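Shipment paperwork, digital attachment
Item: protein structure file
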Amino acid sequence: MLAVAIAALFAVACAGRGPALRGDVYRDPAQGWTIGVPAGAWQRAKAEGADLALLRADGAAMSVTSRCDGADAPPAMLARQLRPDRATRPRDKMKKLEIAGAPTRRQRFETERDGRRLHITTLTRVAPPCIQDFVLVAPEAADDAESVFDAWAKSFEPGSGP
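Attachment content:
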């Protein structure tokens, strides 16, 4: 599943600002959740399956996907579905944290693609019936991408969705 997200983030195409983006805040039209858009060089992009994807000129890309299909499984189990493949090396152990009051699991990986070393960070937030997956794919040289990603994910606010 994450392999698809990585491919989609690498195949992003610039998108016009849709009605869900107001200034520096994105509001999901179906579920009502909001998330800030980082300042600076981040541009809205299209990525297959993502509710919101952002891309920076240095190749760093991040996305959030939210689904409310009633899935109710432990956060660690759901997070493991985002592990890219066996060639991807974990950078550390899965960590527990909270985003907007819901249990969240953080995973960090590194891999190579087209001769470039990439860092991948995933966050899986579980607040039944909804699950949000946040994904960052960044070149190793994009030093600040992970701190921007962390702040971005923490700006998530649940809506009155399904």
